[in-house]
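Issue 218. Parser rejects a valid record. Input:
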Amino acid sequence: MKYFMLLPVLFLCTISFGQNRTTLSTEKKVVNENTTMKTYVIERIIPGAGDLTSEQLKGISQTSCSVLEEMGPIIEWQHSYVTGNKVYCVYKAKNKQLIEEHAKKGDFPANSINEVATTISPKTAKQ
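Output the parser choked on:
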């Protein structure tokens, strides 16, 4: 399956498409005054993901980064978590459709795409 070769994209590459972005919060960014970036978590079911080699992960990362570069500054990969049979990716994008387009162009599964409403951490308990 092609998407096995694309996993590294999720793990080893950070994309930045400009220095004029302003952070609004941990969930939203502004690319320009007309484009708000939302944060999404993507679940990719990939049997054996946790057993992929560094070279396989690198290849996947390179594929993803190439697609992101082609798509421009309206979508950005933050990082990913590789588990036994799934990869969880954190992206910033203008909308969910861009996440779907990235998955299709890169031949990645995108079994679940969810917009992040907010974040919590141990600090939340102390506030």
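Fixed in the parser; the record now loads. The first strand starts at residue 22 and ends at 23.
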